[in-house]
Amino acid sequence: MAQYNTAGTVSAPLELARGEHEAVAINGNGARVAPPPKVTLTSLTPNNTGTLRKIYNVVLPVTYSERFYKSVLDPSLDDVNKLVYYADIPVGACCCSLENVAPKQGEPTLAILTLAVLAPYRSQGLGSALVRHALRAALHPTVPPPPTPPASGTATRGQLKQAPPRVVINRATVHVQVGNEDAKRFYERLGFKEDKVVDNYYKNFQRMEPKAAWLLVCDDIAGALGETGANGA
Ligand SMILES: CC(C)(COP(=O)(O)OP(=O)(O)OC[C@H]1O[C@@H](n2cnc3c(N)ncnc32)[C@H](O)[C@@H]1OP(=O)(O)O)[C@@H](O)C(=O)NCCC(=O)NCCS
Q: Which residue windows are coiled coil (predicted)?
């Protein structure tokens, strides 16, 4: 498989919608306020997969396979899948896959697979920031990073081929375990709507009960992000 340079691009500090920018008085006069902690998003790389695995193992009720952790490193997802750092501490992540992105397959779709934020860092907008970032990246694909030649120094033409630009994606889906009303409301606030119940969605995850999931769909990412058209027109 061709290798690409996904050397861990770090975003500029995020402006969160709420929470973390509230002024905090740190002396009796209320004269000084604590500076807001820096929040950044970082690409997934083989070097931070261990961090990603730790966060998911702590937060999520299922253990994901090595295959999963390899698949989320795919170069075509470099701008979508991110770890979030709070004051330089990795505290959460969102991983997605892309469906129907080849020609004539149906409507291109961003499928949110996993989203987790460590409990002490919740309710500050980090989860929403991860999802909104993935939605924005799907809607506004960037040029994939160039391939990195293999360490041996010799590469076939295929190994050096740059991944083609992605199509614009204006639809997103996520499955939420039936009964997890908080998570459902969380996604509804971000522009998703319940589409249907998928029975036995978690059949391969023994510890997950119930096995049914709500399929939530966002049919208009541009609208959900407050953009009027797919290209911001
Ligand atoms: C869902 C999750 C990523 C949200 O992260 P976050 O950083 O707190 O997200 P935000 O600050 O943007 O939004 C907070 C809202 O998320 C909602 N929420 C969704 N799922 C929640 C959960 N399991 N526990 C607590 N709150 C949850 C709450 O309504 C909360 O609203 P509040 O701040 O008014 O209490 C985080 O709660 C989490 O990791 N939960 C466990 C894993 C999970 O449920 N993943 C999603 C299932 S698909």
A: none
- Convert the pLDDT of each residue in 13-27 to its tens digit: 887 755 444 444 445
Residues of the chain with pLDDT > 90, as a percent, come to: 61
CATH 3.40.630.30 fits 39-144+158-224, yes or no: yes
DSSP 75: G
CB 112 within 8 A of CB 172: yes
- Provide the CA 210 distance to its chain's centre, in angstroms: 25
From 85, 122, 124, 208, the mutation candidate for ligand 1 (largest count of ligand atoms within 8 A of CB) is: 122
Phi, psi of 49 (to 5 degrees): -65, -35
| Domain definitions of the chain by residue range | 39-144+158-224
* pLDDT for the residue 10: 78
Tokens (6 digits) for 72: 């989320």
Q: Is the bond into 147 cis (omega within 30 degrees of 0)?
A: no
Q: Among 74, 57, 72, 58, which residue's Cα sits nearest to residue 3?
A: 74
Q: Would you give the distance in Å from CA 39 to the centre of its chain? A: 15
> How far is 75 from 133, CA to CA, in rounded Å?
17
Ligand 1: residues whose CB is within 6 Å?
59-60, 115-117, 122-128, 174, 176, 182-183, 185-186
Q: Express each pLDDT in 196-207 by its tens digit.
A: 999 999 998 888
Distance CA(29)–CA(199), nearest Å, equals 57
